Structures are given as structure tokens and as C-alpha cells.
Amino acid sequence: MTGMARSSAGLTDRQRRLLYRAWHRGMRETDLIFGEFADSEISALPETELDQFEQLLDQADGDLLSWITGAAPVPAEFDTGLFAKIRSYRPRSAR
Q1: Does the CA dihedral 3-74-62-18 come out positive or negative?
Q2: Could you say which of 11, 61, 86, 95 is the most buried, measured as most Cβ atoms within 10 Å of its Cβ?
Q3: Whether 35 contacts 3, CB under 8 Å
Q4: What percent helix, strand, coil does the chain show, rounded to 5?
Q5: Is 21 in contact with 61 (CB distance < 8 Å)?
């Protein structure tokens, strides 16, 4: 997958904004991780997880990649159920 595959139709303004941000991180690796997760899951995330997702997207790409790969410990404030979902997420094409 090379970019956003999900249409933003049916999403709220906030969900559309987060979907865009997930695909436009600045580092291709984090684009793929967060973008593919958002493509699949953004419409089903409750408000609390949208809040957590937004906070994650505010973090530096290098930090996010280190946390995802396990190269650095995940700070307690980001070590949430949502982060665990992102970390274990695999696109349907990779399953």
C-alpha cells in the first residue's frame, strides 16, 4: 500500500482530519503504520480513543517508531489499549 485507501465519506470532520494526519506524518514508516491503522479503524474508534490517537499524532515520528518497534519503552501516558491495538495491527493484506 502506498497511501490512503479509505474514502473520507461518512467520517466526521475530526475523523477526516486525523485520517489525513495519520497518512502525512513526515516519515514513511510512521505514515504506513498509523495511516493503515486509521484507514481500517478510524470510523470505529470511540471519542476516548480518538483523543488518544490525536495525542499520539502530536508526537515525533522517531519516538513513535521507537515505541512501536520496541527500541524504546512506551511512556506511561501513551501505553494505552489504543497503542496496543496500533502496535499489533496488521493490514488485511498482510494477514
Answers
A1: positive
A2: 86
A3: yes
A4: 65, 0, 35
A5: no
Residue 3, φ and ψ in degrees, nearest 5: -175, -175
Q: What is the pLDDT of residues 30-63, one digit of tens each?
A: 999 999 999 999 999 999 999 999 999 999 999 9
State the amino acid at position 22 in one-letter form.
A
Nearest C-alpha neighbor of 65 from the set 15, 18, 25, 16: 25
Rounded-to-integer distance, Cα 47 and Cα 18, Å: 12
pTM value? 0.87
Distances (CA, A) of 52 to 3, 57, 83: 23, 9, 8
pLDDT digits (tens, 9 = 90+) for 58-77: 999 999 999 999 999 999 99
